[in-house]
Amino acid sequence: MDLKFKTMKKLFITAAIAAMFSVNAFADGGKKAKAEGEKNVSYSALNKFAVDYDNASNVVWTVTPNCQKVDFVLEGAKYTAFYDLDGEYLGRTQEVALSALPESSRKEVTAKYADYTVSHVIKYETNTVEPLVYFVDLLKGDKEIVLKATPNQNLAFFQAIK
Predict the structure, then answer these.
(1) In the chain, what is the greatest distance between 2 CA atoms, to the nearest angstrom?
(2) CA–centroid distance for 27 within its chain
(3) pTM of the full predicted structure?
(4) Which end of the chain is more exposed for a tag (fewer CB within 10 A), N or C?
């Protein structure tokens, strides 16, 4: 009888603790609205995003067969963060001006690609060996190319689009 009582007591305490955690999880009274597209996003990605970018606004999630991405605004700037399908952080992008490139890369773009128009400059930040990379999208007629620039090296051809 004593063993039965102890087992029941443990079950009751476990249930009470679980109930307390449930109450704490919903303590905001449901005030925080779900972001657009959030229902298909992995729990891991949602939690990591909430920790890393807790002051983000205008949050919009998109899940593709390859990744989970989230567009958001943080301190007045627009960003896109990427997570793999398991919710691991891949990096974030931000569209920036050509002037944000390292000086040597900027000079090389204006000298070697003077007959091209700069369409976009994307800053890509990640937690990998190459933590900061810039991608410069250039247009010339029906031709489009992408260049890659890092703070430590000069500009390099990355990809031809058209």
Answers:
(1) 89
(2) 27
(3) 0.72
(4) N
